[in-house]
Amino acid sequence: xxxxxxxxxxxxxxxxxxxxxxxxxxxxxxxxxxxxxxxxxxxxxxxxxxxxxxxxxxxxxxxxxxxxxxxxxxxxxxxxxxxxxxxxxxxxxxxxxxxxxxxxxxxxxxxxxxxxxxxxxxxxxxxxxxxxxxxxxxxxxxxxxxxxxxxxxxxxxxxxxxxxxxxxxxxxxxxxxxx
Length: 179
Fold this sequence. Notes:
two-stranded antiparallel ribbon; alpha/beta; single chain; Spore Coat Polysaccharide Biosynthesis Protein SpsA, Chain A; five-stranded mixed β-sheet; 9 strands; 179 residues
């Protein structure tokens, strides 16, 4: 979108603030990778080398704060994410490297939960110059959370990410509701 999505106004609240509020209901500690964007969260620099590197930076910062369990990750451009769905995702990682929700057959790795084993594999991939979450997913034992199995918790569009101006416009229409 050619600007930092974290600060985009979405119904009077920045995108990052909306996601931070949802995460804070489910996880502790919570931090922002990138700019603070009004969330009030501690921040970690985003090296802007792709989501895989940002994920490891965040995981390392959480470990430095004493957290050694699974990492619940949610990108700032998923404004409709519900705490109940994040809780379901976090509760689905046991016995797996990751719990990844799928919407209409496509994974949503930026609203997912990763075991410490996934962080170790991500570090190895970065050393091999990978930068995409899909590179990580290929190597993990993933609990695939198909939308039919969780749509009673939240609608599948609650995991829509806003990657384009058109997606942002459609999301703002959903936010406003029927005319």
